[in-house]
Amino acid sequence: PYPIACVSVMRRSVSFVERLELQFKGNVFSQAVCLGDVDNDGGSELVVGNVQGDLAVFKKGERSKPWRSSQDLGSIACVGIGDLCQMGQNVLVCVSAEGYCHIFHFEKELEDLVSDIKPSCTFKIPANIRVLLLDDIVSDGVCHLVVGHTDRVVRAYRWVKSEGQASSLSGSLIAIKKWNLEGQVGSLSLTDMPDGSRYLLVAQPGGNFVYLRGNDVDSTDSECQSEDGTRTSKPIPMGHRRVPSNTSDLDVVFASSPHSSRPVGSSASAGISTEVLGLIKCRDEGLTRKQNLVAVSTLNGSLQLLEGNKLLWELHVDHQLFSLAKLDITNDGNEEVIVCAWDGLTYIVDRHQNVVRYQFEENVAAFCAGYYNVDSREVPCLLYATFSGRIYVYYNVILPAMAVSSLCSVIEEELDKLPRLKEKLDSQGLLSHRNIVTWCLYGGQLKEQYAEDGKQSQPPDGNISDCT
Fold first, then answer.
1. Number of Cβ within a 10 Å radius of residue 333
2. CA dist., res. 279 & res. 306, Å (int)
3. Nearest to 281 by CA among 396, 368, 197, 192
4. Residues in the chain with pLDDT values less than 50
């Protein structure tokens, strides 16, 4: 049921009107914004940092200024939220390009006032970090910190609590794994295999990505010690097509298809920046339920959806796509892929390649999608950080459906669910699509319309609302 090659698809435009405007000045990296529950109160907050070292936390959408803030944290490259310290509570992790990892734990006893905060603890790790991932990379219930560097290195860290200390924040970050890659590190994500194993996905230039085996973070076999003391290994070969011989022996999954009209992995786009996103939820019967979907986007306007090694579809647009996210826009249990361009144009695509687009009015420095607490409710939202010192949060971004439906098709589907209404319409001679559509459009003028058309049979007197 899915197209293999790039095809012409209908793209309808939508408008989102419910939004919040937040004040935050400074240059923001694309990975320095996220949504999550930082204070463990059940509601999601917005976290953003800039290259000047300022960190801000916005809460509940009640004020345009930060609920908590911190300064002098270095050039903030990325932020994340998760249970890194393994104490059953989320912490906020802020990593600077200089290699300082700041961990914030928000105590519930703090008064609900805008105030400056200091990191609960800070660690020095190798510099030149551009992206992080806080998640369970081994499927053992333990959260790890994974960071990608501009020098083509990926490192994994785990929190180790100090013995004899009562506080869960009394501990340290231990480097447990290091991978050397051939290309610049793009985004980091996860995927589950049919056998239950979990892998890291690391985006590589040219629409490619590699699998890194998360289950190996605790192993010591066939590993060597790097200069900084972490164990080093190369990405795990997955039996996919190899990169040409001039790029050494690193095995890369090509996110393009032999049937593609414009292969992403071609030499013409070998250096194009790439984003990858895994664990996209899908409940379709036609897909393998043991494996989640993976989306791949490139800066030259390509977007693809894969199930394992199978390319489900690909889409090409004339915009520079720099950020990739996922969100259940239709509230049907299936997550849609959301991709944003530098000029603010946002595409929402479902698993059937139905496309909806939204044009944000400014150029975008950072984008993310998720849930934000507005009016004491967790609502889906799209977040845009601009170059003008403003952050716009569009909330309640819910669409009734992704596919475009005609009135006749909706009538046919709904009548099958309402047998009593179908029987009543049939008794009044209004069961045909033409008659129902005419009544929906013209109401009481139905009888006159029949007379003008010279029809022999006219609808009976009475109100159609009696059928309902």
1. 9
2. 11
3. 192
4. 1-8, 219-268, 288, 290, 446, 451, 454-468
Dihedral over Cα of 265, 271, 277, 278: its sign: positive
Tell me what pLDDT residue 241 has.
30
Task: Write down the pLDDT at residue 250.
Answer: 30
Token duo for residue 105 = 């734990």
Residue 267 has a pLDDT of 46
- Find, among 112, 124, 225, 240, the residue nearest to 178 by Cα: 225
Write out the two tokens for 355: 């496309």
Whole-number Å distance between alpha carbons of 362 and 384: 9
432 Rama sector, left if φ>0, alpha if ψ -120 to 50, beta otherwise:
beta
Stated pTM of the model: 0.78
Would you state the structure tokens that stand for residue 80, as one six-digit string? 């994340």
Q: What residues form DSSP beta bridges with 395? A: 381
Q: Which tokens in the block code for residue 168?
A: 């869960």
Taking CA atoms, 83 is separated from 70, 104, 200, 244, 355, in Å, by: 21, 11, 18, 40, 35
Using DSSP's 3-state secondary structure scheme, residue 291 falls into: coil
Tokens describing residue 211: 């699998």
What b/e string do you get for 63-89 counting C-beta neighbours within 10 Å, with b at 16 or more?
Answer: eeebbbbbeebbbbbbbbbbbbbeeee
3-class secondary structure, 465 = helix
What is the per-residue burial (b if ≥16 Cβ within 10 Å, else e) of 98-137? Answer: bbbbbbbbbeeeeeeeeeebebbbeeebbeebbbbbbbeb
For the chain, state the CA radius of gyration. 26
pLDDT digits (tens, 9 = 90+) for 406-431: 666 666 666 666 676 666 666 666 55
Tokens of 127: 């510099």
CA quadruple 67, 72, 77, 83: dihedral positive or negative?
negative
- pLDDT at position 214 is 66
The dihedral built from the CA positions of residue 394, 21, 60 and 383, taken in this order, carries a sign that is: positive
Using N-to-C axis directions, what is the helix angle for 407-417 and 419-427, rounded to 10°?
110
> In angstroms, rounded to a whole number, what is the distance separating the alpha carbons of residues 168 and 165?
8
